[in-house]
Design brief:
4-stranded antiparallel β-sheet; 288 residues; 9 helices
Length: 288
């Protein structure tokens, strides 16, 4: 049985229902990635999995017990949640921010321990931020800041790690850097990871289990090779595409644009906003 499960989960903001009777079993020890168009309920679902949002209907279960019935400290010791675009306190150092990940394990009679020190040291080493320990988080690059936030979540030492758009606002090299880090941590420590991503190709490359959502419902889930098809991209994202193997990883790679089809010339053209697109990709005005 999966450690984290959603059953009939319905989520709403006031009177607006965002997620409808969703069932999801998060595979243990794997990287699951949730994808879908804007406002489909991806981040809302992740917030509910981390108990930041109370369900309107259904439930989220951790080890068979509803999250609502579990003490907050125990949840914080089991689930680490990194929200989208977190904001660090002004002038806080890297070491101090990472240390905050140990708060769920501390007590009023024991504020800091050797175990806390070990966890923070290991988290910073695994994310390659130990050399930045005394630097202010405000001074760091986007990729460095994301690694620091992930280090804080790792210091929490939870079996489950939930990441909401961890690559937001990062350039492509930092995006790959952060996702490579998450994948490496999953492989080395066997942690269960759930990530919300916008980029379907990145999701297909890094996911063991891919969940595609549309209008607050899951429309497909499974291995990326099974989920990412031209039909699914058209249905979920409204995009014509060609899906080919990634030349580096072999995972599905979505190339936007409809395949060429013969239209009298024998070489094939397609129409885009009143223009005829020649096989070379050059747009030319329609005849007449």
């Amino acid at each position: 049985m999966s450690k984290l499960v959603a059953r009939g989960l319905t989520l709403a903001y006031e009177d607006r229902t965002v997620v409808h009777e969703l069932d999801l079993s998060v595979p243990d020890g794997r990287v699951s990635v949730i994808v879908g168009p804007n406002a489909c309920g991806k981040s809302t679902t992740l917030r509910a999995l981390g108990r930041l949002l109370r369900p309107k209907g259904g439930s989220v279960l951790l080890d068979g017990t509803e999250l609502a019935r579990i003490p907050t400290r125990r949840i914080a010791q089991s689930i680490g949640l990194l929200p989208q675009s977190p904001v660090a306190p002004e002038a806080i150092t890297v070491a101090d921010l990472v240390s905050r990940g140990r708060q769920p394990h501390q007590h009023w009679w024991q504020q800091w321990s050797d175990e806390d020190e070990r966890a923070v040291t290991e988290a910073m080493a695994r994310t390659d931020v130990a050399a930045l320990a005394d630097r202010s988080v405000d001074e760091l690059s986007g990729g460095q800041r994301q690694r620091v936030w992930i280090a804080m979540a790792l210091a929490q030492e939870t079996e489950l790690l939930l990441l909401d758009e961890p690559t937001t606002f990062l350039d492509i090299s930092h995006q790959v850097e952060v996702l490579d880090l998450v994948r490496r941590l999953n492989h080395e420590q066997g942690r269960t990871v759930v990530i919300v991503l916008h980029d379907l190709n990145q999701a297909a490359r890094y996911a063991d289990h891919l969940v595609a959502m549309k209008a607050g419902r899951i429309v497909a889930e499974g291995a990326p090779a099974e989920v990412v098809t031209e039909e699914l991209v058209r249905d979920v994202f409204g995009l014509e595409s060609v899906v080919i193997p990634d030349p580096v990883t072999g995972s599905p790679l979505v190339v936007p644009g409809a395949p060429y089809s013969p239209e009298g010339t024998g070489t094939g053209t397609r129409t885009r906003k009143g223009f005829s697109v020649a096989p070379s990709g050059r747009s030319v005005p329609p005849a007449g």
